[in-house]
Amino acid sequence: MKSGVRALGIAESYRGDRCPDRTRSTLAGAVVRADSVLDGLTYGQCTVGGTDATEAVVSVVEDLDRPDVRYVLLGAIAPAWYNVLEPSRIAATVQRPVITVSFEASDGLESGLDEAFSDTDLEHRLEIYRSLPERRTLSINGETVYVRHVGCGADEAAEVVDAFTPSGGRPEPIRVARLAARAGDAYAEPD
């Protein structure tokens, strides 16, 4: 992949243990080139336990207004306490491939959703969750990551994750976005 290709990584941070009255989670977006050069930052928010994360991610991409960003990499599929993302809707709206990358083996979210929600809140989240693309295992730099992709094939998704991961298993756009989200969340904490 050419060194100037750019990806937007999006990650979230919520420090509920330090500020339990907060109802919003901080989203950060980091534009990173394939040669690992940071090329932009942006912020957004979504509701903790809500259903607005997909719209919040779309807003982050649109507010950034960077037509040179070729891929969107998401560092979670259900940020902000099960605010389940819809990668297909994001990809269709922002007109770019969307790749979600998670870092832990999992039996899935259904049991956690079932414990946390009921009635229409549960059904809505389960409907979104069950519509997600298949989760694939990928080995990057000797580490295992789990990838879902929309708007590109499995080989391209693997190439993108590999190209944007200079070391370890966390793609640089997601790693930087996570750092920025944590810093933004800490800054937003009331005194």
UniProtKB/TrEMBL annotation:
Belongs to the UPF0215 family. It comes from the Archaea. It comes from Natrarchaeobius halalkaliphilus. InterPro entries: Endo_dU. This is UPF0215 protein EA462_00745.
